[in-house]
Design goal:
Largest sheet: 5 strands, mixed
Number of strands: 10
Strand order of the largest sheet: 1-2-8-5-3
Organism: Nonomuraea spiralis
Bound molecules: protoporphyrin IX containing FE
CATH class: Mainly Alpha
Structural class: alpha+beta
Number of helices: 15
Cofactor: heme
Strand content: 5-15%
CATH superfamily: Cytochrome P450
Family: Belongs to the cytochrome P450 family.
Mean pLDDT: 94
Low-confidence stretches: none
Shape: globular
CATH architecture: Orthogonal Bundle
Protein name: Cytochrome P450
Keywords: Heme, Iron, Metal-binding, Monooxygenase, Oxidoreductase
Helix content: 40-55%
């Protein structure tokens, strides 16, 4: 039920948001008995929304736009400036089509094959290591595969440093103090490095002919102009960074396999449909992006509430994936639920909602699923390992979330 939102000035709630980013919107919405409410975040009046109906509203491009919507702290760490996330209208559709052109079966298979090769190589290295920090290792192997896939030259010796820079840009988004500053620095460093590469691709088009780097370097907006070098670098980062970020979901998948030995057995024994359901449930269950931000494009009224032009609005992604009206016993990890899921665009939104081509929904969603299936296959069928005692807690204030130990394994053996 959508009741009229709470109105009027309230105290700034930035601190409660930072302390519990995944539950902030959902908890308040339940307490207020309304799927939409207004608050003040970073001193700005902000509307928060949850539920599938709100998601459908949020992804209507006539009502909400992205230009200037993302908080500055996200622009200078996670997203970079002037990338596809901040575009609207025709220019967004065209730029989005470029990203979607990478996500056909062939492109995805190529990356999955490269990643598979690196999984095999790493497993044989892990056999010789006393302990393996899975999150770190998988981040690196995905970085290596993403480098090869995109044509970004990445000698093996540079992989740990480049992975660390990419991770810092992701971590900085939700961090305070040092974590935030490291994120800003990593973003500047990453953009400079990739700007150099875009220049190189423009000077040597044949060398980058068939690569993602070449495609982005050559890309022209509907006006006909090449992207400014810095913007092209941001878009290349927009492919590399989230591919490395899939390591978080892989870590969550490893946690879920550990917590549910019966799922581990079922997958190890070759139940293919279950692999897909398991991966989907990992994406639903574990916290990654708490919410997304947009701005009201033109004034409108919804359920009796007036949305003035320019009002910042947050959509509760994590809350929708845990909404008891949409998911039976949402706080239980039950992959079987996806055997019956009807593929709705607005009820399962770990990577955004709506249409991939028309709106801002993550273009990398299918790729993420492919890479996660590969990882789950590798973890269950290509290797055995032990999970020693460790601190797997995830502090509620930490977004994006990650277990304290980063998931340690030992006694790794191939096969
Ligand atoms: C957008 C999540 C993987 C590229 C998004 C959005 C979310 C998201 C929540 C915003 C949706 C919105 O604004 O409405 C994730 C998660 C991933 C992931 C949790 C798992 C690691 C990927 C991959 C790629 C990618 C693998 C590319 C290789 C992008 C791009 C956008 C985006 C370019 C901006 C799209 C737009 O604004 O139109 N992602 N993503 N993501 N993602 Fe992902």
């Amino acid at each position: 039920p959508v009741a009229a939102p709470r109105k009027g000035p309230v105290l700034d709630e930035t601190l409660p948001l930072l302390l519990d980013p995944y539950r902030f919107i959902g908890d308040r919405a339940r307490r207020l008995g309304s799927d939409v409410f207004e608050t003040r975040l970073m001193l700005r009046r902000t509307v928060c929304m949850t539920g599938a109906e709100a998601a459908e509203l949020f992804y209507d491009p006539e009502l909400f736009v992205r230009h200037g919507a993302a908080p500055r702290r996200l622009q200078v760490t996670l997203f970079g400036r002037n990338g596809v996330q901040a575009l609207d209208g025709e220019i967004h559709l065209a730029r989005k089509a470029m990203f979607m052109s990478l996500m056909g079966r062939e492109g995805r298979d190529r990356l999955t094959e490269l990643a598979g090769r690196h999984w095999r190589e790493r497993i044989s290295q892990w056999e010789r290591m006393p302990q393996v920090v899975l999150y770190e290792e998988v981040s690196r192997l995905l970085c290596q595969a993403a480098g090869e896939w995109t044509g970004v030259p990445l000698p093996p010796a540079r992989v740990p440093a480049v992975t660390a820079t990419i991770q810092a840009a992701i971590e900085g988004a939700g961090g305070l103090g040092a974590r935030y500053l490291r994120g800003r620095y990593a973003r500047i460093k990453g953009d400079l490095w990739l700007s150099g590469l875009i220049r190189c691709a423009r000077d040597n088009p044949r060398r980058f002919d068939d690569t993602v780097t070449g495609l982005i370097a050559r890309y022209r907006d509907p006006g006909g102009a090449l992207l400014p070098v810095r913007t092209a670098a941001v878009e290349l980062h927009n492919v590399l960074r989230p591919t490395v970020a899939v390591a978080r979901f892989v870590t969550f998948a490893a946690m879920a396999l550990h917590a549910n030995p019966e799922h581990y057995e079922r997958i190890r024994e070759g139940d293919e449909p279950f692999v897909e359901h398991f991966v989907q449930e990992v994406r639903r269950f574990y916290p990654f992006f708490p919410f997304v931000a947009a701005k009201v494009a033109r004034p409108f009224t919804w359920h009796g509430e007036h949305f003035p032009e320019g009002r910042r609005t947050l959509l509760d992604l994590h809350g929708i994936d845990h909404d008891p009206r949409l998911w039976d016993r949402p706080d239980e990890f039950r992959p079987e639920r996806f055997a019956e899921w009807d593929g709705g665009e607005y009820d399962f939104v770990p990577q955004g909602g709506g249409d991939h081509y028309e709106g801002h929904r993550c273009p990398g969603e299918w790729l993420t699923i492919d890479l996660m299936k590969l990882a789950v296959t590798a973890l269950t069928r290509w290797m055995t390992y032990r999970v020693p005692a460790q601190d797997l807690r995830m502090p509620p204030w930490r977004a994006p979330a990650i277990p304290n130990s980063r998931f340690v394994i030992d006694q790794v053996a191939a096969g």
